[in-house]
Write a structure and sequence with these properties.
Layout: H1 5-37, H2 43-51, H3 63-75, E1 78-84, H4 90-106, H5 109-123, E2 125-133, E3 142-148, E4 153-155, E5 169-177, H6 178-184, H7 190-194, E6 220-239, E7 245-246, H8 255-267, E8 272-288, E9 291-296, E10 307-311, E11 313-314, H9 321-324, E12 325-326, H10 333-354, E13 358-360, H11 367-370, H12 387-390, E14 391-393, H13 401-418, H14 437-449, H15 452-476, H16 479-486, H17 499-502, E15 504-510, H18 515-530, H19 537-542, H20 549-630, H21 636-675, H22 695-709
Antiparallel strand pairs: 1-15, 2-3, 2-10, 4-5, 5-6, 6-7, 6-8, 8-9, 11-12, 13-14
Helix pairs in contact: 3-5, 4-15, 10-13, 20-21, 20-22
């Protein structure tokens, strides 16, 4: 393996440089982890107590504080989704979110993240990574996740960014059997793995495990993954307008084929150009018991670290690595130690008050009788001296009153150091339970606000991991596998490597077990906003996350069928009623038209009568005109009488015409009132009889015509 000689040398140099810096952190993290687990005594303190026949008892006040943070994270855990940016592709984002939900569920990602968060609370830092498991899918593999504790990895000491983008080297260690190594490295010749020597202590990762127990297992190997950043030259077709790189494999492409691809991109409206540049990628080197067996890209295909750190308190500007990364537990170790010592001393005082010992006269009392245990002691005395002179019980002073106050103070101090108040523990100040719910909520929120940065770091790690999972899905999952997961053909943008860069963002959403659960909760929100009229109830029921949902859907479907039948029957009844109403209306209209025709007939008859009256009146006027012509030579008296007679006849004729006109109008009004045809537009009415031309003017005209004729 001479070709890997540089890798072995580089890994050794990195370990020596990084371990010298991180050693103080490893020690502090180990102390904090032991204190959390219930052992804050040093070895010397425990030995001294045992020599004094005293037990190094532990009264753990650290664990409740850590469990509080852990419980809050579990109650408020968020899921990771892909959300489109402005004018982004919502359909593609939804499809990527569905596949990511599937990967997270199958890989038990949330449990892995929460375990890593618990570790960072205790020791300050842990790692969560992803890998491809080819056990069930030998072609594409399944994305799975792992957690690394503080003692199993070491990072570049110059690292300062939470996403590891400025970390040049990282090393991880685990212990595997030869068979496990062959399963993890299917691309390595099994003979090479068989030739690797068994593991022996190498003074690396000394806090990882007790290496002594591995000496008996000759088949155990150390499995080191040494990641480092290297620079390679790449050719890319770049869109000069957006800066997006069009991926293509340049290893086997000749100049003509590359130019053809550029011209094709330009025909599609892309301002494409071939660019050759230096690109920094992460290289994976695998060492088995210190022997390099692989060097190349990580199988996940990210060209980046396939893991993210989960941090608690992180101060990258400090040079002291013992303080650079801390967990909540480290700040409570000193308080825990002081509390343990005080409680042990208090127990000793209490025991001494019960039996402080005896003062006796030598030779007068048997010592074994004095030291007997239990109640009802019998102490024989051999002397004739008074009993008070032979033996006396020693009196011990009481417990100092300040001790109890100091114990309470140490407990309160542990809460303050952890940034926790009593409301978060479910206990109000002074044990008072008669407080308003709003007041308790405000106090709890204030207690959490002091540690908001811890949860921000955790959510940031979730976001970084989600971005890596998204790229791993696009790199490794084929269209057929994606179609099987989401139940439909993926969109054209699903496998676009630039989609994560320009069209979407990784964000946190309400956690649900599956994508259907998340969709169901979003539907409930929409129903609250827009009402059940716009959001179909059947859509909500179809995504109900409960057992027996199919039975509920069937029952609701039957009820909907019944409701539709009832509605159909009601509609038919309404249509029949409408047809009946229309029939009655048509009948009434027909009757009204008949009556209206009768009215018009009567009016026409009246007109006929009026016309006859007009003819008679004209004839009478003509006759009178002739008569007046004939008597024009009569004397004045007779002429005056004649005029009076003519006027009498005229007044009688006018009265007859008015009477006939009134009778016709009254008859028409009665018919209209009886048939309800007030709104029926009648035909054109004859001219009002009262508006006839003045008969006297007519006679005068006739007389004038007669006189003029003469």
């Amino acid at each position: 393996m001479s070709e890997f000689q540089d890798i072995r040398t580089d890994s050794e140099e990195f370990w020596l440089r990084a371990n010298n810096c991180w050693q103080s952190y490893f020690r502090n993290a180990q102390v904090a982890l032991r204190a959390y687990s219930g052992n804050s005594w040093t070895e010397r303190e425990a030995e001294n107590l045992l020599l004094e026949d005293r037990v190094p008892e532990e009264f753990n006040i650290i664990r409740p504080q850590i469990q509080l943070f852990s419980g809050y994270a579990r109650d408020n855990l968020k899921s990771t989704i892909v959300a489109p940016v402005e004018n982004g592709d919502q359909k593609t984002s939804d499809e990527l979110s569905e596949v990511m939900k599937y990967v997270y569920e199958k890989g038990d990602t949330n449990a892995t993240m929460l375990n890593a968060f618990d570790d960072c609370l205790k020791t300050g830092m842990s790692l969560v990574g992803l890998f491809l498991d080819f056990s069930d899918d030998p072609i594409h593999g399944d994305i799975k996740f792992y957690k690394r504790s503080f003692s199993s990895f070491i990072i570049d000491p110059d690292w300062e960014r939470a996403d590891l983008s400025d970390a040049s080297e990282v090393m991880l260690r685990d212990f595997v059997t030869r068979e496990d190594a062959k399963s993890l490295l299917p691309f390595i010749d099994p003979k090479v793995i068989d030739e690797v020597r068994a593991f022996s202590s190498d003074n690396k990762f000394t806090f990882l495990r007790n290496n002594q127990k591995f000496f008996k297992n000759k088949d155990l190997l150390s499995y080191d993954q040494y990641y480092r950043k290297v620079t390679i030259k790449v050719k890319e077709i770049v869109d000069l307008d957006t800066g997006a790189a069009i991926p293509f494999s340049s290893e086997n492409d000749d100049e003509g084929l590359i130019e053809e691809k550029i011209q094709l991109a330009r025909q599609m409206g892309i301002n494409a150009e071939l660019v050759e540049r230096n690109k920094q990628v992460v290289e994976l080197n695998i060492l088995l018991t210190g022997e390099p067996v692989y060097s190349g890209p990580d199988p996940v295909g990210l060209e980046d670290y396939p893991f993210v750190p989960v941090l608690c308190h992180w101060e990258p500007q400090l040079n002291d690595f013992g303080l650079k990364v801390q967990g909540v537990a480290l700040g409570l170790v000193d308080t825990q130690r002081a509390f343990n010592k005080r409680m042990v001393q208090k127990k000793d005082v209490m025991d001494s008050v019960v039996n402080t010992g005896f003062m006796y006269k030598v030779g007068e009392v048997d010592v074994e009788d004095i030291t007997q245990s239990g109640s009802g002691k019998m102490i024989p005395v051999n002397s004739n001296l008074p009993f008070a002179e032979v033996i006396q019980q020693l009196q011990q002073g009481g417990i100092p009153p300040g001790w109890q106050e100091e114990t309470v103070f140490l407990q309160d101090l542990a809460l303050r150091i952890a940034g926790v108040n009593e409301s978060l523990l479910g206990v109000d100040e002074g044990g008072n339970t008669q407080v308003s719910g709003r007041l308790a909520e405000v106090r709890a929120a204030n207690g959490l606000r002091a540690n908001r940065s811890i949860f921000d770091n955790f959510e940031r790690s979730q976001k970084y991991l989600g971005s890596k999972v998204l790229r791993a899905i696009q790199k490794n999952y084929g269209p057929g596998k994606v179609r099987r997961i989401i139940g439909r053909e993926p969109s054209e943008q699903f496998f676009n490597q630039e989609f994560d860069r320009f069209d979407s963002v990784i964000k946190q959403a309400v956690l649900s077990q599956t994508q259907r659960d998340s969709f169901y909760f979003e539907l409930l929100k929409l129903v609250e906003i827009y009402g059940p009229e716009k959001i179909p109830v059947s859509l909500v029921i179809a995504n109900l996350p409960m057992a027996g949902a199919s039975d509920l859907q069937e029952a609701i479907a039957q009820e909907e069928i019944k409701a539709q039948e009832v509605q159909k029957a009601q509609e038919e009844d309404r249509q029949r009623a409408a047809r009946l109403t229309d029939s009655v209306t048509l009948e009434n209209i027909s009757l009204a038209r008949s009556r209206n025709a009768k009215i018009h007939s009567d009016i026409a008859l009246g007109k006929e009568r009026i016309s006859e009256s007009e003819e008679n009146r004209a004839s009478a006027a003509l006759d009178r005109a002739k008569t007046m012509t004939e008597i024009s030579n009569l004397n004045d008296d007779r002429l005056l009488k004649l005029m009076q007679f003519v006027q009498l006849l005229e007044s009688q004729e006018i009265a007859d015409r008015q009477r006939i006109n009134d009778e016709v109008n009254q008859q028409a009004a009665e018919i209209i009132a009886n048939t309800g045809l007030q709104d029926v537009k009648p035909e054109a009415q004859p001219q009002d009889l009262n508006n006839q031309p003045d008969e006297q003017a007519l006679i005068a005209q006739q007389l004038q015509n007669t006189t003029g004729g003469q």
